[in-house]
Amino acid sequence: MDANDIDDEEFEFSRNYFLAKELGNSGKKSNSKLSDIDLVDEQELREAASNLQPKHESEIACLLNSYKSLYSKWVCELRCGFGLLMYGFGSKKALLEDFASTALTEYSVVVINGYLQSINLKQVVAALAEVLWDQLKAQRTYIGKSQGQQPFNSRSMDDLIAFLDGPKMDGDDSFVCVLIHNIDGPGLRDPDTQQYLARVSACAHIRIIASIDHVNAPLLWDKKMVHMQFNWCWYHVPTFAPYKVEGIFYPLILAHGGASQSVKTASIVLQSLTPNAQSVFKVLAEHQLAHPDEEGMPINALYTICRERFLVSSQVTLNSHLVEFKDHELVKTRRHSDGQDCLYIPLTTEALEKLLIEISQ
After folding, report:
1. What is the Cα–Cα distance from 359 to 361, expressed in whole angstroms?
2. pTM, 2 dp
C-alpha cells in the first residue's frame, strides 16, 4: 500500500467523522422526559417480585450447607482475635444468623442492622458495654470501681471504648460478638462511624462478624484499619439469596413509593423497638389522628401523657425514644407558630391508621 492510498483512507475517515457530527446535530431532540414515565407503585412491584419462583433451590441449599463445615474454623479465628468479613453475591443475613445461633451459643451476640438508613452508634456501643458488664459480673472476673455508679448511656464514646478494651485476666475468654449485617450500609458508611467501628473492633473484649455487598466497600478502610483494628479474615461466601429484608429499606428503580409501602417499612422498624417505645409512638399517633389540623404535638405534652401512663420515668428516657424515632425517620420536628418544637409523624391519616392496626396486632 503506497502513501497515496493511506492519505485517501485518512481523508475518508475524517470526512465521515464530520458528516456524522453534522447529521447528529441536525437531528430533532426528543421532548420526552424521565418524569413522563408511568411508574409502577412500589408495593405492586415488590409483590410481583416476591411471587417469582426461586430457581436452583437444591443447589443453593447444598452450597449453604457446605459453609457449616467452616463454623468451627470461624469460631477459632474469633477466639484468636480476628474479625470475620463475609462477601459474595446474595444476602448473607440468614447465613450469619445461623452461624451465631448455632456456633456462638457460649458468647453474647449483639446484632447491628447496617442496612437501615440511620443508626445511633453511641447507643450501640453503650449496649455493648452493658452486655459486657453483665457478663463480667456473672463471671466475677472484673476487679475495680463499680460501673453502676454512672450509666453507660451517659458516658462518652472514649470512656465506653476504654471500658470495652479493659484488661483481661489470665485464662479469661470473655468477649462480646458484634454481628453487623452490611457494615457498608447507608447508616454506617460515613468515615467517622467507620473509625469508631474500627476502634471498637480493636478492643480486647469485642469480636466483629460482618458482611459487605457494595463493590467499593473495601475503600472505606485504610491499611491500619484493615490489618491492625478490624484484623479481617476475608471469606467469599456467595449465597445467591434475595435481599428481601435489606431491600425493604431501599426504593426500587422505576417505582414510586406508595402509602402501603411506607406503612410496611414503619411497621418493621417499630416491631424491632421495645414495647415502651412502641407505646410512646402510639400516643403521638393517636394525638395526630385526633387533632389533624394541628402542626404537631408539643414535646412537653407528649412527656406528660407518657409519664401519666408510666411509659417513661424521665425526660431523658423519652428523649432516647425520640432519637430512635428520628433516626428511623418515623417522627419529625417542626416549629409551631408559638415558637415551640412539635413532633409529627410524616404519614397520611389513612396510612397512620393502618400502621396503628398493624402494630397493635
Report:
1. 6
2. 0.62
